[in-house]
Specification:
alpha/beta; Arc Repressor Mutant, subunit A; 2 domains; seven-stranded parallel sheet; Rossmann fold
């Protein structure tokens, strides 16, 4: 059998997930001994497993997730999980220490919130309860939670209270989530909830960064949020339709295709 330390990350993570399911919990130091890899490798593996909803992080290790722990957000995180992790990881590279940013609700932006843990002294405005909880773990962070009615589907706030809060701020960047996007139809959403909030976010930021995996492109939903030219940068994943990608670049929009392997985050491996 191939030594565990030489297995590719996906194989190693399947072994870790199996250990957690069988034992209920495991410490990182135990996994280091079992797998023969470094502490840093185990931390990366546990982070990816937690982001994909396979385990729940605990101090020093991980614990199994019971069916009662799962929310709609957990289930949606598993859809295109690797893509969302890759986008969140790559988008975090665009955030400098000390920045003022807005995080939209959604599972892809939740992956970004988790990837921001190494940043310092951020000021982050968000509509999402889930994101606010994650962001509280960032050293020196100021987290601003908007008011509004929380939608169960996204844990994001909607309505005039949310819009009013966002219209009172100005930030360097907004990281926006969307249901559908195309050069022809722009940014679109299936219902009117949260649309005004997204428009307010666009108006509050110097730079609009759209986070969307490849499956979101080339389609249109019911409600138009904004034209494509409202966006400055898009972070997506391999698999985006080449014609759509070319059309986006022709508009002068920066298109970043994030590598799927979490270890391969060197900027030289990213096409723009």
């Amino acid at each position: 059998m191939e030594p565990l330390r030489r297995r590719i990350p996906a194989d190693r993570q399947r072994v870790i997930a199996s250990i957690v399911r069988q034992s209920g919990s495991v410490r990182g130091s135990e996994l280091v001994d079992i797998l023969g890899v470094t502490d840093e490798t185990i931390r990366r593996d546990l982070l990816q497993l937690a982001l994909s909803g396979a385990v729940r992080r605990s101090r020093g290790g991980a614990v199994a997730i019971s069916p009662l722990d799962e929310s709609n957000t957990d289930l949606r995180l598993r859809e295109h999980a690797a893509e969302k992790i890759a986008i969140g990881t790559r988008a975090a590279d665009l955030v400098e220490d000390g920045s003022r940013i807005i995080l939209d609700s959604g599972t892809t932006t939740l992956c970004l919130a988790r990837a921001l843990r190494q940043k310092r002294n951020l000021t982050v405005v968000t509509t999402a309860v889930t994101h606010a909880v994650e962001l509280m773990g960032i050293a020196g962070a100021t987290v601003v939670m908007t008011g509004g009615v929380i939608r169960p589907a996204t844990y994001g706030a909607s309505g005039q209270l949310a819009v009013a809060t966002i219209r009172e701020v100005h930030v360097e960047q907004v990281f926006l989530a969307i249901h559908s996007v195309s050069v022809k139809g722009g940014l679109t959403y299936p219902s009117f909830e949260e649309v005004e909030v997204k428009r307010a976010m666009i108006g509050a930021a110097r730079r609009v960064i759209l986070l969307a995996d490849h499956s979101k492109f080339g389609r249109e939903a019911f409600v138009k949020v904004a034209p494509m030219l409202a966006v400055h940068t898009i972070v997506t994943t391999p698999g985006i339709d080449p014609a759509e990608a070319d059309a986006i670049r022709e508009l002068g929009i920066e298109l970043i295709v994030a590598p799927l392997a979490i270890e391969s985050t060197d900027a030289s491996s990213v096409t723009t």
